[in-house]
Design goal:
CATH class: Mainly Alpha
Largest sheet: none
Number of helices: 4
Structural class: mainly alpha
Order of helices and strands: HHHH
InterPro entries: 23S_rRNA-intervening_sequence (IPR012657), 23S_rRNA_IVS_sf (IPR036583)
Distance between the termini: 19 Å
Protein name: Four helix bundle protein
Length: 120
Amino acid sequence: MHNIKKLKIWNDSIDLCVDVYKALANMPNDEKYGLSSQIKRSAVSISSNIAEGAGREREKEFYYFLNIAYGSSYELQTQLILCEKLEFISEEINKPLLDRLNDVQKMIYVFKENINKRII
C-alpha cells in the first residue's frame, strides 16, 4: 500500500481535476448534464483510480487501476478537445489543462512501466 498524499502522480491528478472543474464553470447550462458531466467524471476517475490502486496490497492490482486511470486521462483529453472545438471553452483556458493532462499521462505511463517491471 502507498500513502497517496505523498504520491506526486495523485496530487497532480487532483490539481488537474480542480482546474477542470473551474474551467467548466462557464459552460452553457444545457451542457450541465451532457459533456460537462462526462468531463468531470473522467477527471475525477483519474485520481480516484490512482487512489484505489494505491490502496491495494498487490502491485498487480495497482497496475490494473493505473491502466484505468490512464484510459480515463485519454477520455478527458478527447472531451477537452471536443469542448474547445464546440467553443464551450477557449484555447487559452484549454491549453494549460491539456498541458497538465499530458504531464499526468506521462507520469502514469512511467509509474505503470516501473510497476510492470516488478510484477513480471
